[in-house]
Write a structure and sequence with these properties.
The complex is a heterodimer of chains A (229) and B (196).
Chain A lengths: L2 H8 L9 H8 L5 H13 L1 H14 L6 H13 L16 H24 L17 E2 L2 E3 L2 E3 L5 E4 L7 E8 L4 E7 L3 E3 L2 H5 L6 E9 L5 E4 L3 E5 L1
Parallel strand pairs in A: 1-9, 3-10
Antiparallel strand pairs in A: 2-4, 4-7, 5-6, 5-8, 8-9, 8-10
Helix pairs in contact in A: 2-4, 3-4
Chain B lengths: L7 H10 L1 H27 L2 H18 L9 H23 L19 H7 L3 H9 L3 H11 L5 H7 L8 H26 L1
Helix pairs in contact in B: 1-2, 2-3, 3-4, 5-9, 7-9
The chains are: A alpha+beta (229), B mainly alpha (196).
């Protein structure tokens, strides 16, 4: 985990801080009076959130018209993005051939990955002894793993002694976090909204961390790859 | 149809459901936000070429991820999430490439060599320890440290953003914060040695 990630996770909604989007709502005047009071009070005693508020304030501000902004806007116009192929979730007949070719490439990739998963099963982790402290150790994920036939509904792993909570994270291949949740039992249900955003024949990775009562990490799993056929 | 009259969310929905209009809808939508994102990037980067690169990266990401926008929040909120995330990743990799403190003139009033704040903070990686460590800092020191290391802003940017008018600006706050953290972690290490 990078230092930036560590700082962000130390001051996150999971540790009782408002989200960056809450700060944006405050700065755009969308927060209710109660929310406003709560957020103002939090910002007054939390320097990290104060910084997040600063970033949100910049976004909420009406942009000043000047030649540097015009220069950047011209560069954006030059990208001509709206004419680029529409993202996968957007059905479009005009791009059907392009997407058919991409789909074929994904199927080939899926087959190759299927072979990879069959050939490269990781050796099982050794069982820890009774009462053993897992600090710094890895914890063992149960599933989903490898090539599967249906979208996973649940993530499961073996519990860790002394853990008060577990933080499970689902990532795309480019490391973008798609979902993260902290739970107190060694399993977590994938929200339907997140599951709907997952695509067949695309590789995803998930991992889980065991946390103590202060939120410090006791153990972490290796990332587990899975792909829905 | 006058697409300019549609809300941001309606434009996304129309682009999704009417492929023939998608390009026009996205054109209207993106042009609404180009100045806002351009301005934000400019304030965060300070340099218009860098800001233009960042803004382009933001919209390329927005376009490629538009399928994941489900209308559960406002489009502008989602756009802010993407913008912030791209800027943080970019700031983090820029900061890794260069020493965090090389972007300011030397501060002659500082007696110590420039401290490696990253190393000190990395030692306190666990969330609880990081929070406890930062709580011991002055609010402005902690704010500068967070803007630099979490949000990837350069020290001159932070100096300008927070209107710091002391001689060495944000650098002075990073230096004093790191000294305090070092003192704390030095003591922790010493205590651990005694306990062993």
């Amino acid at each position: 985990m990078s230092l930036s990630d560590s700082l962000h996770s130390a001051w996150s909604p999971e540790t009782g801080c408002p989200s960056p989007e809450d700060w944006l709502r405050l700065e755009t005047g969308e927060a209710t009076p109660d929310e406003r009071r709560r957020l103002e009070e939090h910002a007054s005693r939390c320097p990290a959130c104060n910084s997040e508020r600063e970033m949100a304030r910049l976004f909420a501000e009406a942009p000043e018209k000047d030649e540097d902004v015009d220069f950047i806007v011209a560069r954006l116009e030059a990208l001509d993005l709206p004419k680029q192929p529409i993202p996968l979730a957007f059905p479009g007949r005009r791009h059907s051939l392009v997407w058919a070719a991409r789909l074929a490439a994904l199927i080939v990739l899926a087959l190759a990955l299927g072979l990879f998963f069959r050939a490269g099963q990781a050796p099982p982790l050794p069982d820890p002894g009774a009462g053993e402290v897992y600090r710094g150790a890895h914890l063992r994920p149960i599933g989903p793993s490898g090539e599967i036939s249906e979208m996973p509904q649940e993530f499961r792993w073996e519990g860790v002694e002394g853990a008060r909570s577990y933080r499970v994270t689902l990532r795309a291949v480019d490391d973008t976090v798609l979902w993260q949740e902290t739970v107190t039992v060694p399993s977590a249900r994938l929200p339907e909204g997140v599951a709907r955003g997952l695509h067949p024949a695309v590789l995803y990775r998930w991992s889980v961390e065991a946390l103590d009562e202060r939120g410090a990490r006791l153990a972490a799993s290796e990332p587990v790859r899975f792909l829905v056929r | 149809m006058d697409l300019d009259r549609l809300s941001d969310e309606q434009l996304v929905e129309k682009a999704r459901t009417e492929p023939a209009l998608a390009s026009k809808c996205l054109g209207v939508l993106y042009r609404r936000f180009y100045p806002k994102v351009a301005y934000w990037c400019l304030r965060v980067c300070g340099n218009r070429d860098e800001a233009a690169d960042l803004a382009q990266e933001v919209f390329v990401r927005v376009h490629s991820r538009l399928g994941s926008f489900r209308g559960e929040s406002r489009f502008s909120t989602w756009l802010y999430q993407v913008t912030r995330s791209v800027a943080i990743n970019r700031g983090e990799s820029n900061r890794r490439r260069s020493s965090p403190l090389t972007d300011l003139d030397s501060a002659p009033e500082m007696a110590d060599p420039l401290p490696d704040a990253q190393e000190v903070l990395a030692r306190a990686e666990a969330a609880g320890e990081l929070r406890a460590a930062m709580e011991e800092l002055e609010p402005l020191e902690a704010k500068v440290l967070y803007l630099h290391f979490a949000n990837g802003l350069t020290l001159p940017r932070i100096t300008e953003l927070l209107g710091l008018d002391n001689r060495s600006g944000a650098k002075a706050y990073i230096v004093s914060a790191t000294r305090k953290l070092r003192r704390r972690y030095g003591l922790v290490k010493e205590a651990a040695r005694v306990a062993e």
